[in-house]
Amino acid sequence: MRFTIANWMTVSRVPAMFAIVWLMDRNFGWAATIAFWLFIAAALTDWFDGMIARARGEVSSFGRFMDAIVDKVMVIGLMIALVNGGYFTLNNDAHLHGGVTTFALLLLLCILGREFLVSGMRMAAATKGIVIEADMGGKVKTFVQLNAIGWLLGARMFEQDFGNLFFGDERLVISVIHYVGIGLYFLSAILTITSAISYFRRHGHVVLD
């Protein structure tokens, strides 16, 4: 097997995730902005790698496997960093930090549990020669997760690096971006649970027989 351009793009999301997490914990100027745009670049590779692989006729089992694994590593890693970094409250909502962060952590545990359950089911299926491909529900779930992360990173970017451009009612823009991110995060948790139920309804027999 040779590493193709598409494979390099897929694997590049792992070091990008580490760099984004590091930047999320930094307080120097423009750290939040760099983190946001690095995330956008990493998220775009999730779309371009498959497109390039198909266009060049380089679709491989390794590419499909790594794409699914890397997506999970990046999403889970960044969600943990969001919870740890207090991204679910703005500075002017500091009094809500404890409750909102705890709720976000509980949702994250649901997401983690789902990923372990579905991955375990896929492993059990593989031992029987059955391949469980990602369905549309799983793809939509990942899309919403990436959007939630992007909106929350964007809210922090505007608050930290461009806050001086917003005054009075104009700060409502930052709040809207922030709450859209929280809403998408909540939606992604719901989709995570419903997609897991869908997987087990269709493929649960591999672990129940």
Key attributes of the depicted protein:
78% helix; mainly alpha; 209 residues; Four Helix Bundle (Hemerythrin (Met), subunit A); 7 helices
What does this structure look like?
The chain has 209 residues and is mostly helical. The chain has a single domain, classed as Four Helix Bundle (Hemerythrin (Met), subunit A). Helix content is 78%, strand content 0%. It is built from seven helices and no strands. It has helices at residues 5-24, 31-55, 61-84, 97-127, 136-161, 172-203, 205-208. Helix 1 (5-24) packs parallel to helix 3 (61-84), helix 3 (61-84) runs antiparallel to helix 4 and helix 3 packs across helix 5.
Secondary structure topology:
Layout: H1 5-24, H2 31-55, H3 61-84, H4 97-127, H5 136-161, H6 172-203, H7 205-208
In short:
With 209 residues, the chain is mostly helical. 78% of the residues lie in helices and 0% in strands.
In the CATH hierarchy, what is the architecture at level 2?
Up-down Bundle
Low-confidence stretches: none
Roughly how many Å is the radius of gyration? 19 Å
CATH class: Mainly Alpha
Helix-strand string: HHHHHHH
Helix segment count?
A: 7
Strand element count: 0
Q: Averaging pLDDT over every residue, what do you get?
A: 84
Major β-sheet profile: none
Structural class: mainly alpha
Helix content: over 70%
Shape: globular
